[in-house]
Amino acid sequence: MEDKLTFEERSMLLKLARRAIEAAIQDQPFPELDAGNLPARLLEPGVSFVTLTRSGELRGCIGALEPRVSLAEDVQEHAVAAAFQDYRFHPVQAEELPSIEIEISRLTPQSKLEYDHPDELLKLLRPGIDGVVIHYGMYRATFLPQVWEKLPAPELFLNHLCQKMGAPGNLWRKEKLEVYTYQVEEFREQAHQPD
Q1: pLDDT per residue as tens digits for the range 74-103
Q2: Bridge partner residues of 101 (DSSP)
Q3: pTM to 2 decimals?
Q4: What is the DSSP string of the chain?
Q5: Does 193 reside within a domain?
Q6: What are phi and psi of 183, to 5 degrees?
Q7: Does residue 188 lie in a domain region?
Q8: Are residue 25 and residue 60 in the same domain, yes or no?
C-alpha cells in the first residue's frame, strides 16, 4: 500500500479506538477529536475495519468499504461497533478490556475485477494481498486480506465469501458476480507499545 501512515499516526488511531471503547463501556460519547492536534491525514476521508482479539481469538470485527467521515472518526465508530455490535459475540465487558488487543486495517479504494469466466477470476485474485468484495443483487460480503491466512486457496476463499453473503458456496462458479479488490495497511496495539 502506497502512502502508509507514520508510526505516530498509527499510534494515535489505536489510542482513539481504545478511548472510544472505554467511553462506550461507561455510556459516554466518543471523546471529542482535537483537530488542532491531529495530523491532516487522519482528518481526511478514510475507511477502516477494526478487529478486536482476546488471547489471539477473534472478539469482534466491523468496518466499512466506502469513506463517509474522517479516518479518525471512522476508526472510533468501528472500534465501538466491533466491541458492541458484532452479532457473532456478546458485547465487550469492562473487565475484558485490558486483555483485548485492537487491530486497525486502513483500506485503499476498491478496484473492479473484469472477468468472463470463473477460472479467470481465480487467476486475478492475489492471495495474501487483496481484500475481496463480492456483490450479487442486493447482497454483498467482504473478506480482509488477512483471511487468506486461514483460507489460502482462492476456490475455498470464494466459497466461504459466498457463504458469508448468505449464498451457496459455489455461487461464484454459477453466476457472474461483481468483484472488487482492495489492499490494507494493518497495524495493532502490541507493535505500538513503548519498550
Answers
A1: 999 999 999 999 998 999 999 999 999 999
A2: 53
A3: 0.86
A4: --SPPPHHHHHHHHHHHHHHHHHHHTT-PPPPP-GGGS-HHHHSB--EEEEEEETTEEEEEEE-SS--SBHHHHHHHHHHHHHHT-TTSPPPPGGGGGGEEEEEEEEPPPEEPP-SSHHHHHHH--TTT-EEEEEETTEEEEE-GGGGGT--SHHHHHHHHHHHTTS-TTHHHHS--EEEEE-EEEEESGGGS--
A5: no
A6: -120, 165
A7: no
A8: yes
User: Could you read off the pLDDT of 134-176 as tens digits, one per residue?
Assistant: 999 999 999 999 999 999 999 999 999 999 999 999 999 999 9
Please give the pLDDT value at position 36.
87
Q: If you search the block for the grid coordinates 448468505, which residue do you land on?
A: 166
Whether the Cβ atoms of residue 25 and residue 92 lie closer than 8 Å to each other = yes
Q: Kindly list the strands in the beta sheet with 48-54, ordered across the sheet, starting from the edge strand earlier in the chain.
A: 57-63, 48-54, 100-107, 184-188
- Span between the terminal Cα atoms of the chain, in Å: 27
- Between CA 15 and CA 180 the distance in angstroms is 31
Residues 147 and 68 in one domain: no
Length of the chain: 195
